[in-house]
Write a structure and sequence with these properties.
With 375 residues, the chain is α+β, with helices and mostly antiparallel strands. It is built from 10 helices and 6 strands; from the N terminus they run E-E-H-E-E-E-E-H-H-H-H-H-H-H-H-H.
Length: 375
Amino acid sequence: MLQIKKHYSEPEVFEPITFKDGFNLILGETTEGNVKTSGVGKSMAVEFINYALLKRHSDSRVSLIPEEDLSRDTAVCLDFEINGYIITTKRVINDQECPTLIIDGEKKTYSRLSDANDHLSTLLFADTAYENPPSFRMMMGPLIRDEGSEFKSIISCFDTNKRIPPDYTPHLFLLHVDPNPYSKAKRLYSEMENISKARKKMEENITTLTSKNVSESKADLNELENQVRRIQKDIDRLENIEGFDTVKDEIIDIENQLEQERSKQAVLKSELSNIKLFRGDNYIDGQEVADLYNQFKEGLGDLIKREIEEVTTFKQKIDDFQRSIMEDRKTSIEQEIKVFEESISSPNKLYGEKVSLLDQEGLLVSLKQTIAIHS
């Protein structure tokens, strides 16, 4: 049982409120010429009590009071009793996360607000037989309803603007109903919602990445899994063959040799392609130049023609020499390529023979690649 005794502040910024046994009412006083009692501090008095009972500072209207009206060094205090324990709470506004509890004369300051709440929860539910009773602050919800709840629902006791989900735990406890099954159901429901959200997000990601729906993606996944199983089965079968390691090493050596030979062959073929680009002769036609100049001045074209023919003759000699060198290189490259092809044919044949010893079902395309993937 929780019973409030006295509400006050240190230093005194408002008149202390003393509560007596029984039913207590907080009434607003009228003033001369004004019979209205709204705005005189009734709700604020309850808010200070709730603040002293460790309501979060950010959720309390106390945090909205300007410093010039309420010093941040003010301690909001409350004397109350829980199950025979005489308790005083002192909560300095400037240090709201570190309240002080004086329990049966023993003073203790907490470094976290949650620790003080846990301590009060332990005192409040010390004699309960329920496995997971509500917390101290959870019980304060229906007992000190938020003014913003509009008092429309017994269950929804918080500010409607905060959209806090309704919680039946404190009400079940007050009705002497074990709230543990309800708490478990809430956790399960929350987990189901999280799983549903995760599933929806996963489906969206699958659609974005594959441009397919989940059913189509499952079919692709099944096919990939079948391929993996076949490869794994093939590898397991290969590893059981007598002399597998020896044959495997030989095949890898042959593959490396073939790769080197093919690389050299590719270089030669590239050079041969470049040589083949240099074909044909590109010379200035001397007769065309002579005819052009003879149109303008008689005899000048014939003179220029003779000079062009002399230059062309000299260039032809250079080109013939260069062509002979390139033809020799071309012939040499073609012979080297032919030699490479002949040298590769033998390892290729040997490679096929070695693989045939291992791959009886044609499942293994490249032993070297397969081992690299699964090693």
